[in-house]
């Protein structure tokens, strides 16, 4: 793993087990987990994130939201999913992609909404985030 990830990298992983000594066993064998790139990391109090069946959510604006139960959220374009369920670490790479200005604006707007919810201690529910996003777009407001 040290050949793939560097200290400070942002990753999406499943916590498989926490041992009594505080050691975490992480699960990253599925193609939906791994190193994150081309997005924005936002932190809110973890009490605002509810446990859900899916924590990787594709919003209708071409934006993907990863809700971490630790209070960290990753906002980005949806990453490409291969047809396999496993990762071949020998050919693993994360590519920096050009993100269009409209996609960047959507990512920043979602981040603003999440920070707004966090500062007001509101539960982060994807439908609520989308409703506020729609309202902002209807008022022709932007994150500028």
TrEMBL record:
Keyword RNA-binding tagged: yes
SUPFAM superfamilies (alphabetical): Eukaryotic type KH-domain (KH-domain type I) (SSF54791)
Name of this protein: K Homology domain-containing protein
Organism: Cryptosporidium xiaoi
Compartments in which it is found: Nucleus
Main location as per UniProt: nucleus
Keywords assigned: Exosome, RNA-binding
PANTHER family registered for this protein in UniProt: EXOSOME COMPLEX COMPONENT RRP4, PNAS-3 RELATED
Highest taxon in the source lineage: Eukaryota
GO cellular component: cytoplasmic exosome (RNase complex); nuclear exosome (RNase complex)
Gene Ontology molecular function: RNA binding
One Pfam family of this chain: KH_6
An individual GO BP term: U4 snRNA 3'-end processing
InterPro entries the record matches: Exosome_RNA_bind1/RRP40/RRP4 (IPR026699), KH_dom_type_1 (IPR004088), KH_dom_type_1_sf (IPR036612), NA-bd_OB-fold (IPR012340)
Domain K Homology per the UniProt entry, residue ranges: 39-78
């Amino acid at each position: 793993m040290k050949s793939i990830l560097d200290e400070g990298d942002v990753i999406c992983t499943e916590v498989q087990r926490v041992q009594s000594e505080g050691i975490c066993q992480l699960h990253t064998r599925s193609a939906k987990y791994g190193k994150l790139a081309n997005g924005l990391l936002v932190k809110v109090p973890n009490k605002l994130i509810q446990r859900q069946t899916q924590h990787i959510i594709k919003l209708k604006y071409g934006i993907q939201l990863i809700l971490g139960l630790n209070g960290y959220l990753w906002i980005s374009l949806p990453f490409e999913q291969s047809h396999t369920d496993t990762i071949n670490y020998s050919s693993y790479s994360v590519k920096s992609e050009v993100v269009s200005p409209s996609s960047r604006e959507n990512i920043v707007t979602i981040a603003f909404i999440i920070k707004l919810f966090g500062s007001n201690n509101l539960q982060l529910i994807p439908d609520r985030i989308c409703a506020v996003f729609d309202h902002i777009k209807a008022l022709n407001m932007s994150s500028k």
